[in-house]
Amino acid sequence: MTEPAGLRGKLTDYGDSEFALFLRKAFIKGAGYSDDSLNRTVVGIVNTGSGFNPCHGNMPQLIEAVQRGVMLAGGLPVEFPTISLHESFAQPTSMLLRNLMSMDTEEMIRALPVDAVVLIGGCDKTVPAQLMGAASAGIPAIQLVTGSMLSGTHRGQRVGACTDCRAFWGRYRSEEIDDAEIAEVNSALAPSVGTCSVAGTASTMACVAEAAGIALPGSATPPAVTADRVRIAELTGRRATQLAHEGLTIDRILTADAIENALRVLLAVGGSTNGIVHLAAVAGRLGYTLDLARFDEMSEQTPVLVDLKPAGSHYMEDSSDEIRTGQTRSAIRRAVAWSRGA
Ligand code: FES
Predict the structure, then answer these.
(1) Which residues share a beta bridge with 142?
(2) For labelling, which of 61, 233, 302, 323 has a CA lying 20 to 30 Å from the CA of 292?
(3) 66 C-alpha vs ligand 1 centroid, how far in Å?
(4) SS3 for 114?
(5) CA of 124 to the centre of ligand 1 (A)
(6) Closest alpha carbon to 197 in 84, 310, 114, 91
(7) pLDDT at residue 125 is higher than 80
(8) Residue 338 — pLDDT band, cuts 50, 70, 90?
(9) What is the pTM of this model?
(10) What are the residue ranges spanned by the domains of the chain?
(11) Given ligand 1 and candidates 48, 52, 53, 55, which is best to mutate, with the most ligand atoms within 8 Å of its CB?
(12) Contact in structure between 206 and 232 (CB atoms under 8 Å)
């Protein structure tokens, strides 16, 4: 156990540390804080909400729940913004900005007096960027994903972003469906906030973050608009405060074995190949190199346990009884548990 520095940590360099603390407290008291609250363990909450990022559209509710969890554990939650990236709102491509987001995340964590951080992300490049940044910053950190969006319905057919986006667009381009129908589809593909409802990069990174132990057990799959998602946010805030007291830094969680577990789950859920690129970058920040020959060997041993689009037919929110007949959420949980025992 270590004693978190709280607001006394990472003082601005005025050449007089006592003055730096005096000034810091004077300023933040302008926002109405008491001395008692300013003496608490400080948990930073990385806010990646943006009007241009509907995948993070539940951010205010998640932040409120994380704050509740931190306070229940006796800490002081303080949220701060970083860059937010959405796949359809980044020209020429969000991948060009992933590393910039990771640098933003890293430098803000380094600069601010936070004893631990909750990284709230979800859309494809955001979780890898946050893990890369936090890995380089090296303090206690925990990932909270925003959760998947719900699926929709178009003329009796279930649809969801974004496997069906391209499928319907292809039908429109080949003149199988007309302008009126493609406009209907456009309004049905994303019926709620949250991340894409298939095994794209966002769902993959959510699952691998959980498998690697940097997100709470069971936290990858509840959709964005559910009570479970909000409860997980509260629990994540509570756990972040504990991590600060335990001094459990990210490098002690994201070990080489944890990264191998993550790769195993990527295979077991039929995850995105982009996940490999991102895991390689996260591993690199921690001094590891992904062994692609080992990954190839694992791919020969690992069954796909989840019937999830685009390889399968279901969506992240599904919860019927059997693997391969739609139990996406619990199947993913089983895959994560299996990787930990493998
Ligand atoms: Fe954000 Fe697909 S566009 S997860």
Answers:
(1) 118
(2) 323
(3) 22
(4) coil
(5) 6
(6) 310
(7) yes
(8) low
(9) 0.94
(10) 40-150+192-341, 151-191
(11) 55
(12) no
Q: Look up residue 120 and give its DSSP letter.
A: E
Q: Torsion over CA of 306, 296, 123 and 319, rounded to 10 degrees?
A: 10
DSSP annotation string for 288-309? ----HHHHHHHHHHPPP---BT
The type of residue at 196 is C
Tell me the per-residue pLDDT of 176-215, one tens digit each, with 9 for 90 and over: 999 999 999 999 999 999 999 999 999 999 999 999 999 9
Task: Give residue 71 CA to ligand 1 midpoint distance, Å.
Answer: 31
Confidence of residue 2 (pLDDT cuts 50, 70, 90): low
Tokens 């949220």, located at residue: 79
Nearest to 143 by CA among 262, 316, 299: 262
Q: Are 251 and 286 in contact (CB under 8 A)?
A: yes
Number of Cβ within 10 Å of residue 28's Cβ equals: 15
Which residues line ligand 1 at a C-beta cut-off of 6 Å? 55, 86-87, 123-124, 162, 195-196, 200, 202
Task: Extract the tokens encoding 68.
Answer: 């509740």
Q: How far apart are CA 142 and CA 336, in angstroms?
A: 17
| Residue 66 neighbours by CB under 8 Å, 6+ apart | 45, 77, 118, 120, 144, 233, 234, 236, 237, 240
Residue nearest to atom 1 of ligand 1 (CA): 123
Q: Give mean pLDDT, residues 207-230.
A: 96
Is residue 148 helix, strand or coil? strand
* Ligand 1 atom nearest 53 alpha carbon: 1
227-253 as b/e, with b when 16 or more CB fall inside 10 Å? eebbebbbbbbbbbbbbbbeebbbeeb
Closest residue by Cα to atom 3, ligand 1, is 87
Question: What 3-state DSSP class applies to 88?
Answer: coil
